[in-house]
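Postdoc handover notes: sequence design on the structure in folder B. Input tokens:
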């Protein structure tokens, strides 16, 4: 009888350690999946996100050995959630950069208000188009598989139960946000330059022919030119964005 009780106690200890390990992994994975591209979109139902988080947890947990955690009840769980948010936020910024580039481009070619409410988030049609194309490109390039591998490797970068240093985290966040904004403005640069040159030419025409209603003539031409430029430049812009996403996946904690 005593032997049976001892075996049950041993099994209970093993089960407790297993459940604790799975819970910690789920916290990091769930926080990251909520922000990952494709899986963390608002159009994805919450049940699908939960199922994806559970499936990824079953993949990540066996590849991560249980680690010695610091004392305390809330600190390890808070640290795991923070680590997942950091990883997810780094990749989510790439989608926000693409959305920012589309918004700037749409504003430049007078498409900011056309079909602005077609997506789950209020954004111009150019931003919707670029974001959906970026998400499809992310999935096609194996981004989800690489994101799962990144979760496994993150345990070497951020050990379980340890919060990142606030100074390092702030420096990383500022560097990553600055690089994403630079990428967004670079992607939108052709539209901004084309709109600037077109408006300068339109202003010169208006000065030469004051009786001509340049707004009625120029606005449709600007929109048509913007759509033509979008059709020509979108493959190149998405190629540049894909290279930036590759760099973000290769160096998740890099600043730029």
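Designed sequence:
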């Amino acid at each position: 009888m005593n032997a049976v009780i001892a075996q049950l106690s041993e099994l209970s200890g093993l089960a407790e350690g297993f459940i604790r390990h799975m819970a910690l992994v789920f916290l990091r994975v769930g926080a990251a999946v909520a922000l990952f591209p494709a899986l963390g979109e608002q159009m994805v139902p919450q049940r699908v996100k939960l199922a994806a988080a559970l499936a990824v947890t079953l993949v990540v947990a066996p590849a991560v050995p249980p680690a010695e955690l610091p004392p305390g009840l809330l600190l390890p769980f808070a640290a795991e959630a923070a680590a997942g948010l950091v990883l997810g936020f780094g990749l989510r910024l790439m989608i926000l950069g693409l959305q920012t580039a589309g918004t700037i481009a749409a504003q430049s070619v007078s498409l900011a208000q056309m079909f602005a409410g077609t997506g789950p988030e209020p954004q111009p049609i150019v931003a919707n188009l670029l974001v959906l194309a970026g998400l499809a490109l992310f999935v096609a390039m194996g981004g989800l598989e690489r994101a799962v591998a990144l979760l496994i490797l993150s345990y070497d970068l951020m050990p379980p139960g340890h919060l990142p240093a606030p100074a390092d985290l702030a420096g990383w966040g500022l560097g990553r946000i600055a690089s994403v904004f630079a990428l967004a403005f670079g992607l939108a640069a052709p539209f901004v330059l084309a709109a600037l040159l077109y408006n300068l030419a339109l202003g010169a025409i208006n000065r030469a022919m004051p009786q001509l209603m340049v707004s009625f003539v120029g606005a449709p031409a600007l929109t048509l030119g913007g759509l033509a430029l979008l059709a020509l430049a979108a493959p190149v812009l998405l190629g540049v964005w894909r290279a930036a996403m590759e760099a973000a996946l290769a160096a998740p904690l890099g600043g730029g």
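Context for whoever picks this up: DSSP finds seven helices and no strands in the chain. Don't rerun without checking with the PI first.
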